[in-house]
């Protein structure tokens, strides 16, 4: 009995003594924190170099954790992977093969989110110390060909005039700004989305865009839409017909016969399905969900070489319910597959193909970026995997917000994409955007890329 009482007293005294010790005493055995980290493109194409600072106290190894989406205390990002290095290391170069397996090879245009975690391996298991902050980078880009046919390709969702009642700036106020954006960048080809062929007043939105471009460039009047009228007969149930292609007629020649009318019983009707094709809809969808893509074949007047271009605006639906989100993501993948199948029906051997537009999906979507990933799997190169990237820290869908929030890791959500088949590498991928702008010309930023098409 006395022994039991004494033991209790000692235990109580010890507990009292421990209660007044600094709480850091309990963490004395934890690995030293990683106090800073950086991730940059490596020396060779496809590589990423990660460097960090840490005391190395009680650290047997470091875990370099990566994912395609941001993640927190547990590496729960999409496509999560880990590379483990010795506790004596303070940097590591992730090989091109490691980066490829993690989902961020140069052709994907994807970036990797990275953090470093110190680990102490003990008999009872691994103890982790304080991890670094989360950073992100793309891998070292593949250099574009040194010879060939340079092409600046742009994609621009100009926001349909049918939403004028909902937007702070109607199309009549925005048209000149959209034209100015295009003329400032001077792309050879522009994939346009939401250029409605419906009439808003005297002109269709397609026609008013063409008119705005002529007013802005009266001496040259270079930019021409391949089509301006509707794709289906009036009265036909159908969804968006607003994907269009615009080209610089001083540098490129339109080879595909794109006509705005259909001759029926000797009469020219104001519609045509030329230079367009329908994209699939989901089972159970009504025809109003049917979207059309625009395509055309062009020739570079300087080299005589030809290529195909497609403008697409994929299904916009998303859901917080995982199963429904997966359904919509799969629909967009099938729409991308339909684009590629249609181009394979008409393209010549070795002929480059450009697919650009509003994919309504991005790398940072938890459900994935299925249309993009499908095209990359077929040999397309995402032009965002460029030697020079401009303003990718701002979202490409700006919602007409006056001030855009810069992404802390430098890569904001980007639904507007440009992919090229038949070449590799990209010199520049850029957004035309100001972080603060009270008078934006659209709810999307124009994006553009400088690529080099083969001339052999």
UniProtKB/TrEMBL annotation:
Keywords: DNA damage, DNA repair, Endonuclease, Exonuclease, Hydrolase, Magnesium, Metal-binding, Nuclease, Signal. Its cofactor is Mg(2+); Mn(2+). It comes from Microlunatus sagamiharensis. Residues 154-424 form the Endonuclease/exonuclease/phosphatase domain. This is Metal-dependent hydrolase, endonuclease/exonuclease/phosphatase family. Residues 1-27 form the signal peptide. It holds the Pfam family Exo_endo_phos. InterPro entries: Endo/exonu/phosph_ase_sf (IPR036691), Endo/exonuclease/phosphatase (IPR005135), TDP2-like (IPR051547). SUPFAM superfamilies: DNase I-like. GO terms for molecular function: endonuclease activity; exonuclease activity; metal ion binding.
